[in-house]
């Protein structure tokens, strides 16, 4: 994976490595480093015991990968749109969950369709922002916020460092976020409802779940 990432980053294309990674996996989930073939437990916990009310059924999953989070939402009754920049991932996810009424789309978070702006009651982002280098993260986070309807909720799961210094020293992907980066969600008009995490690992990082309302 590292060679693929470096080749694309070096060529000024920070998201170009995802499609070849999924394509080269050839249908083997063990060749996709983040594929657990299950919804993220932070998401299922959240859905079991929501921190705030989600006021409508429209949900969108950002960087859906192999689709487990989208499937979880659909099986709980949400009207789900799920998208990823990698066509091979979207095809794969759609095949895995062909029995569920999910709208699968190939789209780049940084240029999402106009019809998606402010259109979702629940926006779910799991480990996409952390897989993007710092240069495009602010834009990515603001784009995530922009998908939420007024009053809509964003639930985001990301690797976070305890400080900017730890984040700078952390080699990725994933690239741990500095706590200060959350300002990009605020800039998108989101108010923070909660920030939850376990104790940091020895390297000063932890997987954080943040909840926001627009
Ligand atoms: C680390 S993976 C996580 C996938 C999935 N959310 C999960 O938790 O298994 C990051 C995903 O984000 C997708 N992605 C990266 N940049 C993207 C962008 N700009 N727009 C849409 N999807 C993107 C990648 O193709 C990949 O599927």
Folded structure, characterized:
A seven-stranded mixed sheet has the order 3-2-1-4-5-7-6. The radius of gyration is 16 Å and the shape is globular. The chain has a single domain, classed as Vaccinia Virus protein VP39 (Rossmann fold). 30% of the residues lie in helices and 24% in strands. The protein is α/β, with parallel strands linked by helices. Bound molecules: S-adenosylmethionine (SAM). The site of S-adenosylmethionine (SAM) has 19 residues, from loops.
Helix content: 25-40%
Which class best fits the helix and strand makeup? alpha/beta
Strands of the widest sheet, in order across it, are 3-2-1-4-5-7-6
Taking the sheet with the most strands, its summary is: 7 strands, mixed
CATH class membership: Alpha Beta
What low-confidence regions span 5 or more consecutive residues with pLDDT below 50? Answer: none
Overall number of structural domains? 1
CATH superfamily: Vaccinia Virus protein VP39
Count of helical regions: 8
Mean pLDDT: 95
Secondary-structure arrangement, i.e. CATH architecture: 3-Layer(aba) Sandwich
- For this structure, the quaternary state is single chain
Distance between the termini: 36 Å
Strand content: 15-25%
Query: What is the string of SSEs from the N terminus onward?
Result: HHHEHEHEEHEHHEE
Task: Quote the CATH topology.
Answer: Rossmann fold
Which secondary structure elements does this structure contain, and how are they paired or packed?
Layout: H1 2-10, H2 18-25, H3 41-48, E1 58-62, H4 68-75, E2 79-84, H5 87-96, E3 102-106, E4 120-126, H6 137-147, E5 148-161, H7 164-169, H8 183-187, E6 191-196, E7 205-213
Parallel strand pairs: 1-2, 1-4, 2-3, 4-5
Antiparallel strand pairs: 5-7, 6-7
The protein binds S-adenosylmethionine (SAM).
């Amino acid at each position: 994976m590292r060679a693929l990432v470096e080749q694309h980053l070096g060529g000024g294309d920070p998201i170009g490595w995802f499609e070849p990674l999924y394509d080269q996996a050839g249908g083997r989930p063990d060749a996709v480093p983040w594929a657990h073939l299950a919804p993220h437990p932070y998401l299922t916990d959240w859905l079991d015991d929501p921190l705030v009310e989600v006021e409508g059924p429209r949900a969108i999953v950002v960087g859906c990968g192999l689709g487990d989070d989208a499937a979880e939402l659909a099986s709980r009754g949400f009207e789900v749109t799920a998208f990823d920049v990698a066509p091979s991932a979207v095809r794969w996810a759609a095949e895995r969950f062909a029995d569920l009424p999910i709208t699968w789309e190939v789209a780049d978070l940084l240029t999402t369709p106009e019809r998606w702006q402010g259109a979702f009651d629940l926006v779910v982002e799991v480990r996409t922002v952390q897989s993007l280098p710092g240069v495009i993260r602010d834009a990515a986070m603001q784009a995530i916020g922009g998908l939420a309807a007024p009053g809509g909720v964003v639930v985001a799961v990301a690797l976070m460092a305890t400080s900017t210094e730890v984040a700078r020293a952390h080699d990725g992907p994933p690239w741990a976020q500095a706590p200060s980066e959350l300002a990009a969600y605020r800039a998108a008009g989101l108010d923070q409802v909660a920030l939850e995490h376990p104790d940091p690992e020895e390297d000063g990082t932890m997987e954080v779940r943040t909840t926001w309302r627009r």
